[in-house]
């Protein structure tokens, strides 16, 4: 039977279901209206597909893995800010929002959960699908339902788990009211559901069905939720907890039951490591690998010649994954996000919602005005300085980059010694690691914008000095840090008589799993050993702080980026040093991928990191005062702080009012306040 591809453009016009968690608990007439149509829907191939498509629809809105600030505000933390809505940014950074803040994320998730549950319990009666197709579709719905629960757990902390078969609406309001489950109960439920889905999901999808989950997607999502459950926010007091006395003793259900972990349990890390290993083993047998581009000695504007990393005695002469001799580190990273690579051609992609408009908006809003962009999204000075030099040593933030000799000359540009920098660019951006140039649109970045019809709209070197087209004083939208974002932007993208190509939404990729694996292994004390069964029980893993396995994971990510592996003695043999290095690696590798916001919270690092002032270039300086422009300043109009209540989002008062057993997150107001 020919399967239909889920077309997200078509999904937008559907109106199959509009119930929220409130409706799930409180309203029966909509269910009765829907029930009248269930026979018709689930006896039809087309209508069943549409019902499942509606479930997926809730993964591309307020619970999207990647989107613009309007839909995915958690994509912005201490590394990435939006500049077009400074009032909203201030409220977000200062927690000045109220309990109705982004409430659609909650309602969308429970809409999708309800739709998925109905699908799971009705699809088996559809005679137009084969038994194999019914199993696959049911597993897809189970994955989507668990993934929506995961998105809720990330944002809101412990949440109510709905009955698998739905509510009995003949019961009273008091009887259907549902309390919050504990964090561990939520995590375990999601993990178990992902295992059930994994049994019936295929290992691979064809290009027409790339947005449907696979077995690897279910197992990777399981690994992620178990890693979060093992992290200090829910597993306090361990060696990696920066605030060991900080425990959520005030996050309780309506009966006073503690909803967050209170005592450290090292075995949680072992279980997270084993879950990640399930996916790593798939990588070892070729199901996944990190994406790489072959090195080239000659190139074009669209596909430039490789910028070879500095010589390294070990890695320069070896091919990947033992070195970088045969790859282009810059394009290996860059092409995963800029639209040059379809999700189906990316061996690193584990889960995606496809090639769609979510990441398109990150492109359009991030591009400079000179090529028809919104000039809205900025990288913070902190993130900019976090990128290492191309030798792997830290960037020297104390060095002064002032004076005429600190700007690229025409001769230096021609020589290529500072490639890809062009004339006039400050050397604080010179000789940085490849991921910097794939992610950062520094002052003086060259934008090919090749899709524009008119020559005058192509090939723009854009400066953010005061008085320039994308600088302060000309546009309503100005990069407050003077540092733009290149990630998600193609050399073809042009909003002035050209096109902005669609981008893939990267939900989970193999690099993520490798770093989860290394992180979880590192948290085990030397000598500790755990025997953990694989996801399907077919084998058992011996889980220890295995430096060989940690090398396996980290080395692949670092060498793909053209950087040497960590030092054996100084990092791998030191638990705290490795922890610090891994956190830094995640900050760089997953910039603008909706990871940093949640990483800082699960690690309990947000209190320190998000309280640091946002810094950037002095955008009030013109080119005649270029040294002052490149002297970093604090952005006083974007104050930062971190309040304890900011660990989790508030629950809507409307939801609290409709479910009397629901409790509010600490620091936020209840329905009667």
From TrEMBL:
Occurrences of domain SusD-like N-terminal (ranges): 46-227
The protein's UniProt keywords, in alphabetical order, are: Cell outer membrane, Membrane, Signal
Q: Which InterPro entries match?
A: SusD-like_N, SusD_RagB_dom, TPR-like_helical_dom_sf
As given in the record, the signal peptide range reads 1-22
Q: Which domain of life is it from?
A: Bacteria
Record flagged with keyword S-adenosyl-L-methionine: no
Tell me where it mainly resides.
membrane
List, alphabetically, the PROSITE patterns matched.
PROKAR_LIPOPROTEIN (PS51257)
Query: Where, subcellularly, is it found?
Result: Cell outer membrane
Q: Which family does it belong to?
A: Belongs to the SusD family.
Q: What name appears for this protein in its UniProt entry? A: RagB/SusD family nutrient uptake outer membrane protein
Which organism does this sequence originate in?
Bacteroides difficilis
Its taxonomic path starts at: Bacteria, Pseudomonadati, Bacteroidota, Bacteroidia, Bacteroidales
């Amino acid at each position: 039977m020919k399967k239909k591809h889920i077309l997200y453009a078509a999904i937008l016009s559907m109106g199959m279901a509009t119930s929220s968690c409130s409706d799930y608990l409180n309203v029966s007439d909509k269910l009765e209206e829907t029930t009248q149509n269930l026979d018709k829907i689930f006896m039809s191939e087309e209508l069943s597909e549409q019902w499942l498509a509606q479930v997926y629809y809730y993964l591309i809105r307020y619970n999207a893995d990647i989107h613009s600030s309007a839909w995915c505000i958690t994509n912005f933390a201490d590394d990435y800010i939006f500049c077009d809505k400074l009032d909203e940014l201030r409220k977000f950074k200062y927690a000045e929002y109220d309990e109705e803040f982004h409430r659609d994320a909650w309602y969308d998730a429970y809409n999708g959960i309800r739709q998925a549950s109905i699908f799971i319990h009705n699809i088996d009666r559809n005679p137009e699908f084969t038994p194999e197709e019914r199993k696959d579709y049911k597993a897809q719905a189970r994955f989507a339902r668990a993934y929506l629960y995961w998105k809720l757990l990330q944002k809101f902390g412990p949440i109510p788990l709905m009955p698998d078969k739905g509510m009995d609406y003949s019961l009273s309001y008091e009887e259907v009211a549902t309390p919050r489950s504990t964090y561990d109960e939520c995590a375990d439920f999601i993990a178990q559901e992902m295992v059930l889905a994994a049994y019936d999901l295929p290992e691979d999808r064809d290009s027409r069905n790339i947005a449907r989950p696979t077995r690897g997607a279910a197992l990777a999502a399981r690994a992620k939720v178990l890693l979060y459950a093992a992290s200090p926010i829910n597993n306090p007091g361990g060696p990696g907890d920066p605030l060991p006395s900080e425990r959520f003793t005030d996050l309780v259900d309506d009966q006073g039951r503690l909803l967050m972990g209170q005592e450290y349990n090292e075995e949680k890390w072992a279980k997270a490591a084993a879950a990640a290993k399930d996916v790593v083993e798939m990588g070892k047998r070729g199901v996944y690998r990190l994406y790489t581009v072959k090195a080239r000695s000659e190139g074009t504007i669209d596909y430039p010649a490789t910028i070879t990393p500095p010589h390294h005695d070990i890695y320069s002469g070896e091919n990947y994954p033992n070195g970088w001799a045969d790859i282009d580190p810059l394009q290996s990273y860059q092409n995963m996000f800029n639209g040059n690579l379809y999700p189906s051609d990316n061996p690193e992609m584990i889960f995606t919602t496809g090639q769609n408009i979510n990441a398109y908006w990150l492109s359009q809003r991030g591009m400079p005005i000179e090529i028809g962009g919104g000039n809205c999204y900025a990288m913070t000075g902190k993130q900019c300085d976090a990128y290492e030099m191309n030798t792997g040593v830290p960037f020297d933030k104390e060095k002064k980059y002032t004076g005429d000799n600190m700007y690229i000359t025409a001769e230096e540009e021609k020589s290529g010694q500072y490639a890809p920098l062009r004339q006039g660019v400050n050397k604080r951006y010179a000789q940085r690691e490849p991921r910097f140039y794939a992610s950062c649109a520094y002052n003086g970045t060259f934008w090919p914008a090749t899709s524009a019809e008119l020559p005058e709209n192509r090939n723009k070197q854009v400066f953010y000095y005061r008085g320039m087209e994308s600088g302060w004083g000309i546009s309503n939208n100005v990069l407050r840090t003077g540092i733009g974002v290149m990630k998600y932007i193609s050399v073809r993208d042009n909003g002035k008589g050209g096109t902005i190509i669609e981008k893939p939404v990267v939900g989970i990729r193999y690099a993520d799993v490798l770093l989860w694996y290394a992180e979880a292994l590192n948290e085990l004390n030397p000598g500790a050993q755990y025997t953990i069964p694989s996801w399907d029980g077919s084998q058992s893993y011996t889980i220890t702080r295995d430096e060989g396995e940690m090398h396996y994971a980290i080395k692949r990510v670092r060498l793909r980026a053209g950087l040497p592996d960590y030092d054996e003695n100084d990092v791998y043999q030191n638990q705290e040093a490795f922890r610090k290095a891994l956190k830094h690696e995640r900050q760089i590798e997953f910039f603008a991928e909706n990871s940093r916001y949640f990483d800082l919270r699960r690690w309990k690092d947000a209190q320190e990191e998000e309280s640091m002032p946002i810094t950037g270039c002095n955008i009030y300086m013109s080119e005649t005062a270029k040294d002052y422009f490149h002297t970093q300043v604090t952005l006083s109009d974007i104050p930062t702080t971190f309040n304890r209540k900011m660990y989790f989002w508030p629950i809507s008062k409307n939801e609290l009012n409709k479910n009397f057993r629901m409790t509010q997150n600490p620091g936020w107001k209840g329905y009667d306040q």
